Amino acid sequence: MSNTNLITHLRHVGFAMPQLEEQRAFYSKEWGLTEVAEKDGVHYFAAEGSPEPYVIRLRKDDKKRADVISFGTATRENVDALAKQLKQDGVQLIHEPRELSAPGGGYGVRLFDLDGRVVEVSADVAPREYRDLEPGESIPARLSHCVINSPNPQATVDWYEKCLGFQVVETLHIHGNTLMWFMRCSHPQHHVLAVGNGPHVAMHHVSFDMRGIDEFLRGVGRLQRDGKELIWGPGRHQTGDNAYGYFQDAAGNTVEYTAGMSQLGDSWTATEGDLSDPAVLDVWGTSNAWGENVMRSHFNTPDEGLFVAPPL
Ligand SMILES: [Fe+2]
Fold this sequence. Notes:
Helix content: 10-25%
CATH architecture of the largest domain: Roll
CATH superfamily of the largest domain: 2,3-Dihydroxybiphenyl 1,2-Dioxygenase, domain 1
CATH class of the largest domain: Alpha Beta
Protein name: Oxidoreductase
Shape: globular
InterPro entries: Glyas_Bleomycin-R_OHBP_Dase (IPR029068), Glyas_Fos-R_dOase_dom (IPR004360), GlyoxalaseI/FosfomycinResist (IPR050383), VOC_core (IPR037523)
Number of domains: 2
Pfam family, one: Glyoxalase
Bound molecules: fe (ii) ion
Organism: Noviherbaspirillum sedimenti
Number of strands: 17
Radius of gyration: 18 Å
CATH topology of the largest domain: 2,3-Dihydroxybiphenyl 1,2-Dioxygenase, domain 1
Distance between the termini: 30 Å
Largest sheet: 9 strands, mixed
Strand order of the largest sheet: 14-15-16-13-9-12-11-10-17
Number of helices: 6
């Protein structure tokens, strides 16, 4: 079967870390999410403008790791067909398709990707009641995309194409080296996943969509006034045409406020960007330089939970 268009969107990302209380305070009081539930030690955070029951989940653990990257698919039948196909292809499932017990429930399968990240694909998740954000409201409207680091980036990209049906829409190069692969799912949004060429397996960043450019800038400014270090930004990438401002959460994972990402039409073709042109990374020319500090933040520390299923 072809898995193209199997995945509809990014649902949520889970993190585990020793400093749970600092992390809860960061995502609710500073980043602007709403803590909506706690169950068996896992804390769930929703974005006010999103129907997803939660977009971030946090769990205390001695190890710093990404617990799960969760994607949506349209039907339960898709989940079953995907699980069957993955097993035939030798992918290690963490659990078979089953009813999910997290807020919103649903029906999903969990598996390890090529590098050992935990990936969930689910359908039938009950939507949360959400609202349109007000003009000027500088909190995340929804989850936009996430980027993962891999020391085996091409193989990881191939895996996501083959196993989950993502399609590469753009690559970024410098001096002949490919540094980033941007991937789309069935949604016209330019990318919901990207793979970075990194020194180790880790989360590169998780990105949150703001109501618009004004609210994006207000959010970046609000965090800076609160004393948070703006790692990189504010600027606008040529790739995806989205605005960017990168910060770090309480465990040192990079998180992004974004706005204005482009939508792909039916006749899109894959493109390439050359990073020797500074306008590729920073269209407006307003951002601080892309230097070692930015790279270190994006590389993150090695994920300590590879090929280990989280307890929940
Ligand atoms: Fe991003």
